[in-house]
Every structure is written in C-alpha cells, then in structure tokens.
Specification:
Blueprint: H1 9-40, H2 55-68, H3 75-101, E1 103-104, H4 121-146, H5 150-173, E2 183-184
Antiparallel strand pairs: 1-2
Helix pairs in contact: 1-2, 1-4, 1-5, 2-3, 2-4, 3-4
Length: 185
Amino acid sequence: MDRFAAPTRRTAVLENWLLLFFVCSAAGWLWEVLLTAAATGCWVNRGLLHGPWLPIYGAGGVLLAAALGRFRRHPAAALALGALLGGAVEYGTALVLERWYHRRWWDYTGWAGSIRGRVCLASLLGFALAGWLASRWREPLLRRFSQMSPGARGLLCRGVGLLFALDWALSLLRPNTGAGIAGPL
C-alpha cells in the first residue's frame, strides 16, 4: 500500500476531529491564561504541558461536539448536558492528575458549589456555555476543516501532533508545576 496515496474518507474525518481537538486545546489554554492574567495581573501557563494547549479542553471540546451536535435546536438540553459532561471530564481529570502526580493543577475549594475543589458552580456554568457553543459551532468548524486540501490538513495534523506528542512526553517526565499551579496535595 502506498503510504502517500490520497487519504480515505475515514482518514479525513479523523483528521477533522483531531484538528478540532487541537483548536479546543489551544483555545482552552488561551482562555485560562487570559482569565489568570485578568485576575492576578500575571501571565501564567496553567497547564500540565509546557506548550500552548490544555488537552482537557481538547478532550472536552471533542466530547461536547460529538455528544451535543444533535442538540443544536435544543439549547436548554445543550446547556444542561454541557455542564454535566464538562463537569465529569474536569472532575475525572483532576482525580487522575492528583493520583499520578500528587499535586493539583486547580483548586476550587471555597468557591460556590465546589465539589472537593475539583469542580464548582462557575466551571459548570462555563461548561454549560461550552456545550451550547459546541452544539452550534460543530458543523461549521468541521466543514471548514473539510474544505482544506487533504495534503495540507494531513501535514498540519502530523506537524501539530508531533509537537503535541513531544510536549506530552516531556511533561510526563517533568510536568509544568510553575506559578499558577495549585500545588502539592
């Protein structure tokens, strides 16, 4: 099989979702950096990784887009399911990070509606909004990725994927634990 042959339909669909993961990861990182800068006046890398991405936002964005695309005409359902799914991803990710690294990357203790410092009412409201946005923007974003030439889309996926994998490998050995990280358990 020629490895440079034209991509199949399945490959194109997977690349589109991978690009959505990277866009959501980068948007989440930017959101966190801007929120922290507004609250503290300092620029802080808020993630486990060293690069400009937060995979929790990528995974959450893909999950919300996949699960909530059919709720485009049902905003209340998209809002409620976005809060539930996003909250579950955030809570689960907090548990995994705490168990693996014995430290917290965020702590909502003292926030309204906090559940063991892992999620809170404010984050659930953010996930509700993200769920609604995912239900509205899923199709236009995936359509835009589909309009890229197959070669450019594949090259972009492989290039960003390689950078992401290298950052992930480094961060497994030496996670970002700098300023803005909640700290040891």
